[in-house]
Amino acid sequence: MFQKVWGWIKGLFSRRKGGDVEVGTKWDEKTEILAKDEWDKLKKILSEHRVLLNEVEKAQEYHDGEFKILKRKPKRKDDPNHRLAPNYASLIIGMKSSYMLGIPIAYDVPKGILMQKKRNEDVPEEVFEQYKEEFMEVTEENDDHAVTMEAMNDGLIAGAATVLFYFNDNWDIKYQVYTFNECIPVVEGRELKQAIRTYKNEDGIECIEIYDSQAVTYLIKDEEQYKKDPSKKVNPAAHHLPVVPAAVFINGKKAKPHFSRIAQGVSELGPDVRSILDEYSRIVSDNANRMDVFCDPYLKLIGALPSTDDVDEMRRRRVIAMKAKQGDQADIGYIEYSQESGGIEAHATRILDDLFQTTSTPKIFKSEAVGNLSSVAIRQLYTPLDNEANEKETWLNKFIRQKVIVITMMLNVRNAVQAGIDPATLFSSEKPPDMPIYDWRWMYWDVKRNLPQNDKELAETLIKYKGTLSERTLLKQISYVEDVDEEMAQKRQEALDQPRVPLNNIDGYLDNLDAKIAGRSMDDDET
């Protein structure tokens, strides 16, 4: 049993040269290269990473609202100095991640489809159900939706984000996301070869964790040299997986080739976007300063020279009363600067339009976005973002696929431990173990975009296609149906519990009645 699945897994991981590590003995060949010449290659990767962080940290500062305008000094000491920083950077990132992942990813193991494929002909049906149940349990315990959303947010800002997986002491599967600042994805071609986590412990010592296809190596920095962490009893420590226990979300690909082993895409808050944000914050800040000056004009006194106390008293009472000297004529009034604000407003509007066009952000605050829009109008409003999402979804699917592979392999390892099988030899033995082996290709996922819907039009469309499309396909179109299988099971149960015959659906009632009778026990109650 499971011979075909096992043969495919063996062939896949023998090409990757993983899965044969003994606990605490060695790392893989890629980490071996890093370790040469006192970790010279590692030092070069860390040095290159620090250079890349200069640009990353600028984007992160803008996302957090730390604009240049906030550091501006007044030209003169008595000048007003408003420093307004409308944080459209956060809106841009939030809009894109919410559009793509606002609806949780739907995972499914379609037994009917899988059992028709030749490679699964020796897999019992209950194994598919068991795999889905265990997989969903892992995603729920780790709050998968939040982890995936956070990875995309960090990736949109920094260009890349990494999720690391591990077993806790109870062999529970755990994973969490790390920003590009904390974890360096190292690739060869397009394949992830290592994930290097860097951080400082509570004593301020720089620590390095290197995740490869066989083990995790723990290092600390001693002066200018790296050495194995003496506090770890087992180092390197096997993770028992034939792949790097990590998944990386990369935000697209840079147009200009950069010959680097560090995987990083582009930031949505690059220099072009930041320059527009700076200009807009300057416009609104200068306009606020101008308003302060206009609302507090100079008092002009010609032909009279009151004392300072008199001036203060007049300002306090908001009354001007002066008497000119004999023979002089007093001219008293405010010096007003008249300027139309139309030019300023037009400039600010254009800058804001440029920002939304450059970042493909829908202008949901515009008057044309208000009201009961049709589905076509909604799609037109979201077309720029939708076009960009088409490209990003290819990278997102790669990230999800890697996540599914790692979780599936970890489930196999955990099940081996529970069955008393040595996990170190699970993927290196010549024949499949006496236990179910899960194949990550059984897992299907659906990324549904968080596009606002006209519910009335959607309902009419679903009614129109009822009888033409399957019930599963129709339910998938409804955004508030999170689990299609659960919804279908609930509908079947409601039909079984129906006390009366629905005259408009007699055939459906009879089908459900047959199912209800088939589910009854044939045993005699008295026996």
TrEMBL record:
User: Which organism encodes this protein?
Assistant: Aneurinibacillus migulanus
What is the name of this protein?
Phage portal protein, SPP1 family
